[in-house]
Amino acid sequence: MHESFNESTEMYLKTIRELTDGNEPVPISALARRLEVSTVSATEMIHRLEDHNLVTHTPYKGVQLTDDGCHHASEIIRSHRLWERFLVDHLHIPWEKVHDVACRLEHATDPEVTNALADFLGNPETCPHGNPIPEAGRRLTMTLSHTLSDLVPGDSGVIERIHPESNLLLEYLAMHNVIPGHRLVVTEIAPFNGPIMVDIDGQTHALGQEVAAHIFVKPINEA
User: Fold this and answer.
1) What is the tens place of the pLDDT at every residue in 165-195?
2) Which of 166, 160, 157, 156 is CA-nearest to residue 179?
3) I want to staple 107 with a disulfide (CB 3.0 to 4.6 A). Which of 6, 7, 170, 220 is the partner?
């Protein structure tokens, strides 16, 4: 475990980092939903993290990581994504089933073990879900990219990553062959915020708007 932080503290730091969009604060309500806790519990934890100079909280706007908080969050995410890579590449556990296992392992892994794991794996750049693995001692940098929700009928692209993940989401996407590296074409978007119809490897799939917001795509210019 990283320094003297307990598992709950680490989960909050990691989740805030995962939900951060640029420099915008993360609403405590969104943080509570992601962690499946009450808003009251999340608020109490945020106050404790503030006392340790790990986050700043702006009332009615949300929470942001401090430099120290961002550093610790990146370490946790690095451990998590390296474990996912190990579980898929060396233990051959299915792509869609490693997220929760890695969540447990990340809290029990010292930085020395994380670095040894990275060396053993050849310092991979991404996890099996396409998300970047931070370098040791470096902050996680978020890359700007389009979600499937940003595309319109006729657009095509390559699936880059799934973020943020959950086992339930990954199992659903695996059933629909929505895997990083696969090419998709948007064929139709139903009105009134309806599902997005996509063609992947010659098969048509209907993906809801909420699911589409987790799928990041690199558009392909057909011109």
Assistant:
1) 889 999 999 999 999 999 999 999 998 888 9
2) 160
3) 7
**Residue 220 neighbours by CB under 8 Å, 6+ apart:** 156, 157, 158, 183
Look at the chain and count its residues. 223
Q: Please choose, from the candidates 96, 136, 129, 98, the residue with its C-alpha nearest in 3D space to the C-alpha of residue 114.
A: 136
Helix (H) or strand (E) holding 114: helix 111-121
Mean pLDDT, the chain, as a whole number? 90
pLDDT band for position 125 (cuts 50, 70, 90): very high
Amino acid identity, position 178: V
Do residues 147 and 214 make contact, with C-beta atoms less than 8 angstroms apart? yes
Find the largest Cα–Cα distance for the chain: 54
Give the DSSP letter string of 5-70: --HHHHHHHHHHHHH-BTTBPBPHHHHHHHHT--HHHHHHHHHHHHHTTSEEEETTTEEEE-HHHH
Q: How far apart are CA 8 and CA 10, in angstroms?
A: 5
Domains of the chain as residue ranges with CATH:
1-142 (1.10.10.10), 146-220 (2.30.30.90)
- What is the C-alpha R_g of the chain? 18
